Amino acid sequence: MLRGLRAPVDRRARLRWLHLLLGAALLMPFQLLTTSAVATAGLADGDFGLGTQLLAFALALPLVAAAGLLPVARSLEGAIARTLCGATGEVLATPADSWSARRRTSLWFTLHTLLGGVTGALSLAAPPAGVLLLLMPLRHPHAVGPAWTGPVAEHPWTTTLLGLAALALPVALSYAAGRSLARLAPRLLGPTPADRLAAAQRRADRMAERNRVARELHDSVGHALSAVGVQAAAAARLLRTDPDFAATALAAIEATARDAVTELDHVLGLLRDEDDRAAPHTLADLPALLDRTRAAGAPVDYAEHGLRARTLPGTLSREAYRIVQEGLGNALKHAGDAPVQIRLTARQDTLEITMANPLRPPAGPPTRAGRGLAGLRERVALLRGTLDAGPDDTGQWRLTARLPLGSST
Hints:
The protein has 2 domains: 2-191, no CATH class; 199-404, Heat Shock Protein 90 (2-Layer Sandwich), CATH 3.30.565. The protein has helices spanning 2-6, 11-40, 50-67, 71-85, 99-135, 156-189, 193-238, 243-271, 286-295, 314-335, 371-382, and strands spanning 300-305, 340-346, 350-358, 386-391, 396-404. By secondary structure, it is α+β, with helices and mostly antiparallel strands. A 5-stranded mixed beta sheet has the order 1-2-3-5-4, covered by helices on one side. The protein contains 11 helices and 5 strands. Strand 2 (340-346) and strand 3 (350-358) form a beta hairpin.
């Protein structure tokens, strides 16, 4: 109960009061403009009394609503509402990009200035009046007070109650108006269902692009590092006994590293949203990839059926190269110099890629696995194909990808 009594004057309530006073400050230029217009039109009384101010206030609100249509109003009001009003939920901090958002911002801006103007006026006028009413019972019997105190001057208990009410009125109004604005902020300044759908689509696009870059890095640079590791180990092992093979392995390391730099430049171009600096590899580049793998000491048995008689789409050829590259990288990483068998078969409507190598226990410490196969599954899924990977009954690791020949991304 004590907490409920403190709510109208706690820190959040004070911040919301400042938020309302800021609304009054934002209203002031419009109020001055309409006051001058009323005076110029001869509609003002001599001393710019309450009637004139109320008329100017009413005329200022349409101008406020028009200003709220400006795109920048949404970002400013959204930031202020989160900071001072304590608005919960999604509140946009970016300029409005649709007329629906602008209209809702205009309504919010009008309410903010309207309630802020009333709260500001009462915050200035009510406390002095309340103090005066509380002090009236203590004044000299023959003292003359303001004219508006005449009806209650003869009843001290009435002036005390009215004085307390005058002091409490700005607090109560500020608390109620602040809570109301905080509840309305997500509706008027927050995203619409269309905004949320567009934001979700942007997040999905960013995630898809990140996955694409991760696949490119893993399949190209990751394969190159695996090949270089195996080639370097083979060269070091046979440097004294078979210098010719060691020289071949070192030349393969140089070629693999050069190719990896080209691949990395291509991936960096994707990250920078640039045009591809280098054309991605296709199945036409497969012989060079196989030669570098053989230079690492891993025998590769490659055969193809029906490919030369078919013209494969560019996207399919690029993705097929990546699938073979990733399969060779996995073989080098997990089976070392074990022989690898690769078969590419083009049927009437399907390109089938089959790779097999003996299962061997890892020679070094275990490495985290799964990213390569996950990337392959994503590639194959984008091409509307199927992928099977795992050990078979003959003690070999077998990877089979079937891709429709009409695939495109």
